[in-house]
Amino acid sequence: MAKKPGAGGFILAAVALGLIAVYWIYRFESNLEKQAKEHWVPIVVAREDIPSRTKVTSDMITLMPYPKDLLTPGAVLDRKEVEGRVTLVRLKAKEQIRSSDLLAEGQTPSLSYDIPEGMRAMAIAASEISAAGNAVKPGDHVDILATYSEPNTHQETTRLVLQNVLVLAVNQAETNTQGPTGARSSMTLAVKPEEAELLMAADRAGVLRVMLRAPSDKKIVDWSQGVTVKDIQGSKTFEMTPRTPDSPSTPIIISPSNRQRSEITIVRGTQETTVPTQ
Question: Do 270 and 250 have their domain in common?
Answer without folding.
Answer: yes
